[in-house]
From TrEMBL:
GO terms for biological process: protein targeting to mitochondrion. This is Mitochondrial import receptor subunit TOM34. It is found in: Cytoplasm; Mitochondrion outer membrane. SUPFAM superfamilies: TPR-like. Belongs to the Tom34 family.
Length: 305
């Protein structure tokens, strides 16, 4: 005798989750369908619950290779709760499988606005950038659909979720960092960095950051790309991001004077005067006559009095 099915939305979703974990994707999908029908019969509005059910059913479709229905369910989930991480990632994967690379790029890019450490989105952007460069040429960015701007509220919602809901972000970025770039990747990274440098000269620091981001996806072994992006963060008063970029630059080149100077500037803005002085001292050991560093040391010393 078959076990009796749960008669609640929560019970059906839990049963569906268990079937999914067991690799029974068709059975899981059917359970999510029943839960969705029960929600509709109930007539009560619970957009978050409904969104999760659509997203979970989309995961079943994706596992079964049914990318079209996966996209439909992810789109339904996102209509109920915009900028939800899992349906965005699942839809991106489905678009990628269907070779709809511009649409996949937009979804991966949207995820990175919510959390820029999601390894699967970073890797997806890397793949999509390569595919789009190959298929559309150097002007591929001009042929993309518009990328939605993620509101701060959506980012805060994600940051407030329990840690178990963020398992997709636990994969360390070291996996992408450990990849040795090919000669072609290094050249693409160089070209993108130069485009970023040109944007800096024009005062367009936000766009320059995007170029440096793309450059680092192809090759993250160039210290100056990090220190150049740090400059943009400084101009935009994003001091913590500047510190991070300078630290990455110095891991690659401990004598990167610009990285030391910019991190000292960022620490000063953050009122961490001791760290600022330490970087200035390191810089002046390399270049004892560096005028801007000497001036910055005087300013920091004034703050410490």
């Amino acid at each position: 005798m078959a076990p009796k099915l749960p008669d609640s939305v929560e019970g059906l979703r839990a049963a569906g989750n268990q079937s999914f974990r067991n690799g029974q994707y068709a059975e899981a999908s059917a359970l999510y369908c029943r839960a969705l029908r029960l929600l509709q019969v109930r007539g009560s509005s619970d957009p978050e619950e409904e969104s999760v059910l659509y997203s979970n059913r989309a995961a079943c479709h994706l596992k079964d290779g049914n990318c079209t229905d996966c996209i439909k369910d992810c789109t339904s989930a996102l209509a109920l709760v915009p900028f939800s991480m899992k349906p965005l990632l699942r839809r991106a994967s489905a678009y990628e499988a269907l070779e709809k690379y511009p649409l996949a790029y937009v979804d991966y890019k949207t995820v990175l606005q919510i959390d820029n450490s999601v390894a699967s989105a970073l890797e997806g952007i890397n793949r999509m950038t390569r595919a789009l460069m190959d298929s559309l040429g150097p002007e591929w960015r001009l042929k993309l659909p518009s990328i939605p701007v993620v509101p701060v509220s959506a980012q805060k919602r994600w940051n407030s979720l329990p840690s178990e809901n963020k398992e997709s972000t636990k994969k360390s970025k070291e996996t992408t960092k450990s990849r040795v770039p090919s000669a072609g990747d290094v050249e693409r990274a160089r070209v993108l960095k130069e485009e970023g440098n040109e944007l800096v000269k024009k005062g367009n620091h936000k766009k320059a950051i995007e170029k440096y981001n793309e450059s680092l996806l192809f090759s993250n072994l160039e210290s100056t790309t990090y220190s150049n992006r740090a400059l943009c963060h400084l101009v935009l008063n994003q001091d913590k991001e500047a510190v991070k970029d300078c630290t990455e630059a110095l891991k690659l080149d401990g004598k990167n004077v610009k990285a030391l100077y910019r991190r000292a500037q960022a620490y000063k803005s953050l009122k961490d005067y001791k760290s600022s002085l330490a970087d200035i001292s390191s810089l002046l050991q390399i270049e004892p006559r560096n005028g801007p560093a000497q001036k910055l040391r005087q300013e920091v010393n004034q703050k410490l009095k």
